[in-house]
Amino acid sequence: MTGIYFSGTGNTKFCVDTFLKEYGYSTNSFSIEDNETLGRIENENEIVIGYPVQYSNIPKIVKDYIIYNRHIWKGKSIFIIATMGLFSGDGAGILARLLKNYGAIIVGGLHLKMPDSICDEKALKRSFEENKKIVMKAEEKICKSVCNIKNGKPPQEGLGIVYHFAGLFGQRLYFFGKPKNIRTN
Ligand SMILES: Cc1cc2nc3c(=O)[nH]c(=O)nc-3n(C[C@H](O)[C@H](O)[C@H](O)COP(=O)(O)O)c2cc1C
């Protein structure tokens, strides 16, 4: 299994690496911003892909990467990890729907709450101790999920019609038309 990710401040890379380690693979993860990553994907059938939810959506860089390289996803088994600061209806589902268009097999999805990476959103500010607890909870959730995957029951968070509606009506419509100029650390 190979892990690929986009990670603005490191949360998502940490989650993908923890997932791989828990699975028994060495931390075998690659950023989609690295040139060599495409070759790694081409030579691998099982992939875990991680990204942070941004404005209740997948980051544009991830969407562009998937679409630009649309020919490489066919027949790949893909598990999706979406990290977020608060909540996402269908964070994993958005990418799942896109990848299915290009012939990928979606094995499952996992939503992980992590420290927030937006600097200027007061409501999301937490203390160091609070953030430590959030990371520990995410680690526990990853361990449980890997155990379930090994037992043939991969989590399906963010996938399916109920999550899709939650993402669309509970989240994305809120951001519709709003300027997206939040500063990040
Ligand atoms: C521009 C931007 C938009 C974001 N939008 C959301 C959002 O809509 N919902 C949410 O729960 N978190 C949101 N976040 C928080 C990130 O998803 C979260 O902190 C994530 O774990 C960051 O991962 P990274 O360090 O790998 O980039 C946003 C972060 C940024 C920078």
Biggest β-sheet strands, sense, barrel: 5 strands, parallel
The DSSP helix count reads 6
Ligand set: flavin mononucleotide
- Report the mean per-residue pLDDT as an integer: 90
Order of strands, widest sheet: 2-1-3-4-5
Q: How would you describe the shape?
A: globular
Q: Give the radius of gyration.
A: 16 Å
Low-confidence stretches: none
**Strand share of the residues?**
15-25%
Order of helices and strands: EHEHEHEHEHH
Helix content: 40-55%
Number of strands: 5
Distance between the termini: 31 Å
Label the structural class: alpha/beta
Note the topology.
Blueprint: E1 2-5, H1 11-23, E2 29-31, H2 37-42, E3 46-52, H3 60-68, E4 77-84, H4 91-101, E5 105-113, H5 128-150, H6 161-175
Parallel strand pairs: 1-2, 1-3, 3-4, 4-5
Helix pairs in contact: 1-5
3D architecture notes:
The longest helix has 23 residues, at 128-150. This protein has helices at 11-23, 37-42, 60-68, 91-101, 128-150, 161-175, and strands at 2-5, 29-31, 46-52, 77-84, 105-113. It has a 5-stranded parallel β-sheet, with helices on both faces. The model has no long low-confidence stretch (mean pLDDT 90). The protein starts with a strand and ends in a 10-residue tail after the last helix. With 185 residues, it is an alpha/beta fold. The chain has 6 helices and 5 strands; from the N terminus they run βαβαβαβαβαα. Flavin mononucleotide is lined by residues 7-12, 52-56, 83-88, 114, 116-118, 182, 184. Flavin mononucleotide binds next to helix 1 and strand 4.
